[in-house]
Design brief:
Distance between the termini of chain A: 39 Å
Helix content of chain A: over 70%
Oligomer: heterodimer
Number of helices of chain A: 9
Distance between the termini of chain B: 25 Å
Strand content of chain A: under 5%
Radius of gyration of chain B: 26 Å
Strand order of the largest sheet of chain A: 1-2
Largest interface: A-B, 48 and 43 residues
Order of helices and strands of chain B: HEEEEEHEEHHH
Strand order of the largest sheet of chain B: 4-3-6-7
Largest sheet of chain A: 2 strands, antiparallel
Chain lengths: 213, 196
Amino acid sequence: MHISEGVLSVPILLAGGGVSLAGAWLGLKRLDYDHLITAATLASAFFVGSLIHVPLGPSSVHLLLNGLLGLILGWVAFPCILVALLLQALLFQFGGITVLGVNTMNVAVPAILCRYLLYSQLKAGGKRATVAGFIGGAGAVLGTAIMAALSLAFTDDGFLDTAKLVVVAHIPVMIIEGFVTMFAVGYLAKTHPSLLGLGNELHKPEHKEAASC
Amino acid sequence: MLMRGVLTALCIMLFAIPASAHKIILNAWGEGDTLITETGFSDGSAGKESKITVTDATTGAEVLTGVADENGLFEAQIPAEVIVQGHDLQVVTNAGAGHQAKATVSGDEFSPPVESPAAEKNLSEQGATASSDAVKVMVKQAVREEIKPLRREIMTMADKGPSLSTILGGIGYIFGLAGVAALVGARRRHNETAHK
């Protein structure tokens, strides 16, 4: 979901920019040295994910992968999404520079929200983590669609019409991303729980055995 | 130093690259006194029923508005008094859900309508002594018709999606930035141990 240049009013652009700057700063503070490559790999996946189009009705929608980033990286997803969206705007002309803040906010906030809401489920491991993966992947896309509709509410056809349009358009993406995130998170929870920020679990011997399987 | 270099490069890019819309493509051109616009998405689908707004790029005055058809096409006659001014026209298309694109059509692309029935009459009455003006108009029209498919082809060629090199370049940037972050982190860590 990229909102184009020139659609949104200045207050919304400024608000989005402010939230994104704050979020990216918070994320960078939490980015530790050992997870740099994980973050860069996921940022690349997000960057490329937008090129995978799902043809649907009058237009087509593309993968977002923000749920995956949010569940794995938490706040670090914010700077990752900011960088990836900046590069998409510069290299692919998706979105734009002035709307970068709003687009980053719309994609990153639901992703981080999913992480916070689902953290306990992820920690539980097993089936519960797998289900949490699906909900996280699909929910983050839904959240982004709703946030995009909200930011368009003041300038476009009104919130409800836009929301319906955007949410309906993203239903296939929600399902696809639900599965992608479910498999990714389910696998990681089993093999590399530390990647999910469940680091304390790693010290228990049974999890070390699980990692070697 | 490296950080500063990267930041400078990014800043230069920010201003050097014209930012346009995601996925939505707007082609607009003039044919005689008619403005034709085509709205589409980068995957080739049409921007059905997009809202088209045409304004005078110099004065900012609204010239006309309309809605594109099922194929994303929109045609409208530009009033003669606007064409006479010769100003560029700015076309904005909005395909809904935050998809908007802009294009500017040069004022030179338009010519005020010539009374072609009169010109034809002129031609038939006077035979070979037709005024050169009438012939000019007819030739212009014929050429315009002939190059239409070419024009469309060129436009679709120009709208190709991102190439592999662009994609790989973007991934390279991301890992490059991670490298910068690693460098900063390492230096900080080094300084911390040095101070202890």
